[in-house]
Amino acid sequence: GGFEFTAFNMSIGQLLVNGDSATMRVYVSEELWGKDGSLTRIKGRYDDRLIRTAHGWCFASRIYTVLKMF
Which of 29, 34, 58, 65 keeps 20 to 30 A from 12, CA to CA? Predict the structure, then answer.
């Protein structure tokens, strides 16, 4: 089991700030090369809710959705 190599790329699709809270949508592309030579590609999306604290912005919630796996 396990992977020989992994790659992860992301891009922000939307960021909406409303005072001390925000919502953010991030699209991701992952490539997972298995030790057996296999390759799995995943396209996904994170839907995040953020809050501003005294220490900066923090995640309040995060939902990950797989859009396509091939």
Answer: 34
Place of tokens 């991030």: 26
**pTM across the whole model:** 0.85
Q: Long-range contacts of range 13-18, CB-CB < 8 Å, 24 or more positions apart? A: 13/45
End-to-end CA distance of the chain: 18
Tokens at residue 61, please? 């919630």
Give the largest CA-CA distance in the chain.
Answer: 49
Model confidence over 30-60: pLDDT tens digits? 999 999 999 999 999 999 999 999 999 999 9
